[in-house]
Amino acid sequence: MQQARENVTIPKILTAPMHVLPLWPVSIALSQLARKLLRAHPTILSRIDKYQENLFELDITDLPFILRLHPARAELRAFRRSAAPDADARISGSLAAFLAMLHGVEDGDSLYFSGSLQIEGDTSAVLALRNALDDAELDLSTEIANALPLLAPPLRLALAPLEKLTGLHLQRADTTPEVY
Amino acid sequence: MELVCPAGTPAALRAAVDAGAHCIYCGFADETNARNFPGLNFSRAELAEAVGYAHARGAKVLVAINTFPTAGQEALWHSAVADAERAGADAVILADLGLLAYTAEHHPDLRRHLSVQAAAANPDAINFYASAFDVRRVVLPRVLSVEEIAAINKEIDVETEVFVFGGLCVMAEGRCSLSSYATGRSPNMNGVCSPPEHVDYATEGNESVARLGGFTIHRTPKGGAAPYPTLCKGCFTSGDKTGHVFEDAVSLDASALVPRLAQAGVTALKIEGRQRSKAYVAQIVRAFRAVTDALDEGRAPPALALARLSEGQAATTGAYAKTWR
């Protein structure tokens, strides 16, 4: 039986440099990824529907910054927690929980039931975003490789060892965890 | 035994089919179905494509049109029935008497199932729906014991479908007014139990607080297990007692009762959860397919480990084993 990995957290030694490094290159890279991803998966915006203009805060609790997503502008930007503007809806949880949900390994409601994910603000907007991303069957590693083709070959080689090392779900699950 | 599985999106439908669902039920993205949540459900084109995917792999698709039409706006529900038939749906799941009559008259070849929203819980009611509208299958409310289901099956000629996993509604379904009382919207008319635009989550001190329409439903330790923000699972004070007055925050899991349900004459097992993700759908469907396969082959069903996917992280056999307070 596959182990639940939503409680894995990033070691502080890896996140420490992020406290001092500038965030603007992160915002540029993430927004570029968001633009390509939304272009490749148009049903995401159609499912988000009237909440496209909402500002979503993704508070990845084991990272020293938060992410702000504005779907209509295809913006995904990083902010220091103290400097972040108000958002319409907020989802918080570990990077492991976010990745497991995005890659179809964990169910968002189950993560909420267990306290691994928490939401605040406009619940309708959160549901719309969650359902839109779930239907899109995203694989972040593929999306990154598509956005940055030069990185694709080393990324393919590194994925499995990285998953093993970190315990994170870095790509879409091929198999369904057995529950019996 | 037929396994009837939920799908809130095309991706979830494909996951259900791939995991071994015999049948998948879904709905249109409007007020005609009882899971009308943002970002969920199917467009007409998506439904047609999904039916093609399922049929190509030997699975059936049922379309839930199981809310009660608003007076003067029946056209929305009528067009949903026509569009489900046009998309190639194997049946529609209906609750409203008028819509059943309309469908029987205008779409006689479209198989009709009676939704749990109709709350038909005795042979007289079921036989009426069967004779008046040629309903071929009834989804039984989640308030009956296995013995009561066996007794009903002896007095009716239509198939019965029962819930075996997921959210547990103990109300007279289709008549519950709790959500209407707090928000003005209901699962019966608008397809939403606890409409999300009325749900407010907040962190207060070390507690997570969930409110519906301004009513505090429950307070849980921050980061602790939490249920859905539904009034029936809220923690309230009544007299000198504080607790889950209507229903504990648990999910139904009747996997161990499947052999007895088969003996009781049940045709199909239903999994609740069109609002859940494809990860939930895939895991639950695969688990229950192992149960039905074991049953078909005369083996003991495997024990399932589903608590992690359950509301409240706990499960109950609900009314099937009848241990109400």
Automatic annotation (TrEMBL), chain B:
Binding sites annotated in the UniProt record for [4Fe-4S] cluster: C169, C176, C193, C232
Keyword Iron-sulfur: yes
Cofactor: [4Fe-4S] cluster
InterPro entries, alphabetized: Peptidase_U32 (IPR001539), RNA/ubiquinone_mod_enzymes (IPR051454), UbiU (IPR043692)
Pathway(s) annotated for this protein in UniProt: Cofactor biosynthesis; ubiquinone biosynthesis
Keyword Protease included in the entry's annotation: yes
Keywords on record: 4Fe-4S, Hydrolase, Iron, Iron-sulfur, Metal-binding, Protease, Ubiquinone biosynthesis
A GO molecular-function descriptor: peptidase activity
Pfam families: Peptidase_U32
GO biological process terms held by the UniProt record: proteolysis; ubiquinone biosynthetic process
Function summary: Required for O(2)-independent ubiquinone (coenzyme Q) biosynthesis. Together with UbiV, is essential for the C6-hydroxylation reaction in the oxygen-independent ubiquinone biosynthesis pathway.
Similarity field: Belongs to the peptidase U32 family. UbiU subfamily.
Quaternary structure and interacting proteins, as annotated: Forms a heterodimer with UbiV.
Name under which the protein is recorded: Ubiquinone biosynthesis protein UbiU
